[in-house]
Design brief:
25% strand, 3-stranded mixed beta sheet, 260 residues, 29% helix, Rossmann fold, elongated, 2 domains, 13 strands, Ubiquitin-like (UB roll), alpha/beta
Length: 260
C-alpha cells in the first residue's frame, strides 16, 4: 500500500490580534478626553474670577480743568478703576476722553503700581454761537462749558460758523485800533452783515466788501464828528461814506467821501 505524501509547502501562521496597539489608542483617547474635561472644569470654576495684577486704584490730573465738566471726566475714568494696569488699553481710554465736549487732546500715562496720570488739553472758547453753543478756535460749535464766559455773540447760518468766526476776528482786530470792543456779529441768511459794539452802536455793512467798509467806519469814528456817545447806528452800505443815526434825532446825518 502506497503511503500518501503530504505537501511540504509553508504553513501560514495566524497573526495575533493587535490588542496592545488598540489599548494604546484607547489610553491616549482617554487621556485627551480627561484633559479636555479637566480644562472645562477649571474654566467653569474660575470663570467668575478676574485676574487683575496691579489694579488701578486712582487717577490724577496734571492741571485743573477750566471748561470741561469734571463729573463727565470722572464717569469715564471710574470705569477703569480696578482694571489691571498691565492690560489697560490707553488708546481706547484716550479716545473716550477726547470724545468729551471740551477735551481737545488727551494723554494718559500708567504710573506704577496702580495710578493713571491724565494730561488734558482743552478747547479754546472764542465766541457764543446762535445763542446756544460756543465756538472753539476752529469754529466748531460745542456745548456751553461749565465756566462763566464773557465772549462776543455771533449769529449766522448753521453751516457757516467757521466763516462767521473768521470775519469776527477780522472785525475785532480792525475796531481794536479805536479801542472799541465788538460785542455782536450777525450774518443774515442772504449774506448781509451787521456789527454791534459794546457801547451799543450798531453798524450795518451790507453784503460786499465788509472788511473795507468796517475800516471806513473806524476812520469815521476817529474823526469823532458827532461824538460816539451820541451815535445810535452807523450805516456803511454807501459807496464812499456812511450814514449816522444820532440818539436824539430822527434824521440821518450822511458823511460822504470817507476813504476805506
Amino acid at each position: 500500500m502506497t503511503a500518501t505524501k503530504r505537501s511540504k509547502g509553508a504553513t501560514k501562521r495566524r497573526q495575533p490580534l493587535p490588542v496592545r496597539k488598540w489599548a494604546g489608542y484607547f489610553v491616549k483617547f482617554v487621556g485627551v478626553a480627561a484633559g479636555i474635561m479637566a480644562l472645562w472644569v477649571v474654566t467653569v470654576l474660575i470663570s467668575d474670577v478676574q485676574w487683575r495684577p496691579l489694579a488701578v486704584t486712582q487717577y490724577a490730573l496734571t492741571s485743573p480743568l477750566v471748561y470741561q465738566e469734571e463729573t463727565q471726566l470722572d464717569d469715564v475714568l471710574q470705569g477703569y478703576m480696578g482694571k489691571s494696569l498691565f492690560f489697560l488699553d490707553l488708546l481706547e481710554l484716550n479716545a473716550r476722553l477726547e470724545a468729551l465736549p471740551w477735551v481737545r487732546q488727551s494723554s494718559v500715562l500708567k504710573t506704577w503700581p496702580g495710578k493713571l496720570t491724565v494730561t488734558l488739553t482743552e478747547h479754546e472758547p472764542v465766541a457764543f454761537w446762535n445763542g446756544e453753543d460756543v465756538l472753539n478756535s476752529e469754529g466748531i460749535p460745542l456745548s456751553r462749558p461749565m465756566a462763566e464766559l464773557k465772549l462776543a455773540s455771533l449769529q449766522g447760518p448753521e453751516n457757516q460758523s467757521a466763516y462767521v468766526m473768521e470775519n469776527y476776528l477780522q472785525f475785532a482786530k480792525i475796531f481794536r485800533e479805536q479801542n472799541v470792543i465788538v460785542e455782536k456779529v450777525a450774518m443774515r441768511s442772504r449774506g448781509s452783515w451787521s456789527i454791534t459794539l459794546r457801547s451799543g452802536i450798531e453798524i450795518f455793512l451790507g453784503e460786499k466788501e465788509v472788511l473795507e467798509r468796517s475800516r471806513r467806519v473806524v476812520k469815521f469814528m476817529n474823526s469823532n464828528v458827532f461824538g460816539l456817545d451820541n451815535i445810535k447806528y452807523i450805516d456803511a452800505r454807501y459807496p464812499n461814506g456812511v450814514a449816522v443815526k444820532l440818539q436824539d434825532e430822527n434824521s440821518l446825518e450822511v458823511k460822504n467821501d470817507i476813504a476805506a
